[in-house]
Amino acid sequence: MSVTSVGNPSDSMQSLQAVLFDMDGTLVETEELWGEAMAALAGQLGGVFSAAAREQTVGTSMRVAMGVLYADLGIERSEEQRRVDAGWVEEQTAVLMTSRGMPWRPGARDLLVAVRDAGLATALVTTTPRRIATLVIDQIAGDLGGSPFDLTVCGDEVPARKPDPAPYLQAMRSLGVDPAGSVVIEDSQVGVTAGLASGATVLGVPSLQSLEPLPGLTLRSSLVDLTVAELRRLVEQRELAPTTA
């Protein structure tokens, strides 16, 4: 497996305190469902949602996603229409989640179990609204025999959404952990930007969107065989230059 890491220098060794997970596309295979719902809306509006535009919406809020969709279709909608459209996409996605299920992303289940067994603090930090995220949270808890998260933060519970660091900073404050001792795991550029801005070490595992190498970001092809020891090393040893292992 190829791993590319770019880091910032650090004068002192840090200890891993917490792991904060994104949800859609990071832990579960739900990004495709969001895309399908948005494509269905585009069809209702008389157009076709392009793959390039869909990629731009990964990890964003529904408001941003609707703006991308409208621009892609070359149409304008009022604020009220945007609100209604976003609500329709959310409801349609919830229906798809319920009817088709939400499979784990490769390696995600094993990593969650390992992080909990190691006694580390954990949080789920998602842009998805609580009423939709609960479907995933409940499924994860049912599969693992209880919630693996000490805390869950959803997009409608924060003053600003990713790429703003507010969701991750709120989670870290609630957990009582230092950003320098935290690892954020994300699949989108928006989420990576939020994690880096929070001061955390960020592990990027792309799903539908390619991720740009950035200082402080480690890129990994999947979560398969990722260990807690590797997460500890990411925090304790900030790399100075890209490496491939």
Radius of gyration: 18 Å
CATH architecture group name of the largest domain: 3-Layer(aba) Sandwich
- The termini sit apart by 7 Å
Count the DSSP helices: 9
Shape: globular
Helices and strands, in order, run as EEHHHHHEHEHEHEEHE
Estimated helix fraction: 40-55%
Which residue ranges are poorly predicted, with pLDDT under 50 across at least 5 consecutive positions? 1-11, 239-245
Task: Estimate what percentage of residues fall within beta strands.
Answer: 5-15%
Structural domains: how many? 2
Topology, pairings included?
Elements: E1 3-5, E2 18-21, H1 31-44, H2 51-57, H3 62-73, H4 79-100, H5 108-117, E3 121-125, H6 130-144, E4 151-153, H7 166-175, E5 182-186, H8 189-197, E6 201-204, E7 217-220, H9 228-236, E8 243-244
Parallel strand pairs: 2-3, 2-5, 3-4, 5-6, 6-7
Antiparallel strand pairs: 1-7, 1-8
Notes on the protein architecture:
With 245 residues, the protein is α/β, with parallel strands linked by helices. The chain folds into 2 domains: 169 residues, Rossmann fold; 70 residues, DNA polymerase, domain 1, CATH 1.10.150. The chain is built from 9 helices and 8 strands. It has an 8-stranded mixed beta sheet. Helix 8 links the parallel strand 5 and strand 6. Helix 1 packs across helix 4, helix 2 packs antiparallel against helix 3 and helix 3 crosses helix 4. The protein is globular. The chain starts with a strand and ends with a strand. The N terminus and C terminus are likely disordered.
